[in-house]
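Can't paste images in this forum, so I'm doing it all in text. The chain is below; anyone willing to post the predicted structure tokens underneath?
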Amino acid sequence: MTTIVPTSEEDPALSVVRFTSELSWSDAGPAVAEQQVSRLCVEAQECMVMNRWLDLTSLMLTSADIVFSNSKVSEKDLECIFTVICNLVTKSGIPDEELEMAKLICAKIIQQPTDKPVLRLKILFNLYNLLDNVYCRFYVYMKALNLAMSGKVTEHIIPSCKKIDSFLKEWNLEVQDQRELFLCVANALKDSKSSAKDSFKFLTRYLATFSGEDAYKMGEAKDEAARTIIEFVKAPDMFQCDLLDMPAVAQLEKDAKYALVYQLLKIFLTQRLDAYLEFQAVNSALLKSYGLVHEDCITKMRLISLVDLASHESGRIPYTLIKDTLRINDDEVESWVVRALTSKLIACKMDQMNQVVLVSSCTERVFGRQQWQVLRTKLGTWRDNIANVINTIQANKITEDSSQAVQGLMIR
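Text version of the structure:
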């Protein structure tokens, strides 16, 4: 086992310089090695005396590559070395210099993301916790996200993604940095089955940042807007979204490359199964190119069509209408209603005697201006009803009090 920091009065940073330089020059022969080690140690001491922390960081990182590749250095020692190097950021006190030091350290750590990725990720998080500058923290976190993806260890960073909202309050980012963050988090989460919905959520947050942008800027979001639509269509358990209201998505309607993708989104959010089948008959190759499975799309559109029936048929849906709309057999109607129930898309009862479904509530596929107006009307009706009940109770109480007063006079 190699000993990194000797138990002496020597400064830890100087000990690291001595150790890494000895490791780097070990093959050059004792005379050359001793000369080079002495030179580097003197240079490091000068940096420390003159508070040149950025130069010292650069000096210490020069030999850091050999530390990762040398089999004689354990992971524990590696972590120890970089803990000492990372700690230099606490000595600067100058925000711009602190950021430059963080950039140097990050650049060295992420050079070989597939070699000991978990350890490299741990070092970056150690660096993050040592930083005072909030933008530095954002910068390091972004590097950690990219390292986790490149090193295929995203499971180690997914828990931190749940704290993004609190991070945003701390970092106070500009819009461009927010975009970069949301997109990077979405990419980090996309390969995790348990985080698919979170990935979609961050994609939509990314697209939402383009509100009010000019056409050129908006164009940056086209590919991701199309990707978000496809992710929504693919997801077997997502039936509601606000993508149609987003300018970054709306721009696809007349786009030469993505117009059909936008049309597909409109079908899934505003139309029924028959519209999808007509679209698929003409664009089957397009759907396959995006990895969409026709049978899965039919299943989702049947559930969506049932929800649409529930919201437009005054709470009573005949079995025959469900059969015709979903293009199923008579004996399949109730099983599809049960599927919609278990997916919490509708709340209803089945009247088998009269062959109707009695709907009490249903999920809205989109929640735009029209839905807000309906909600406003309902709330107004409830308010008026409650006011009528209160007035009735008060009127009855006045009548009751008057009767009791009259009875009291008669007793006297």
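Strands lie at 316-318, 346-351, 356-362. Confidence is low (pLDDT under 50) at residues 1-8.
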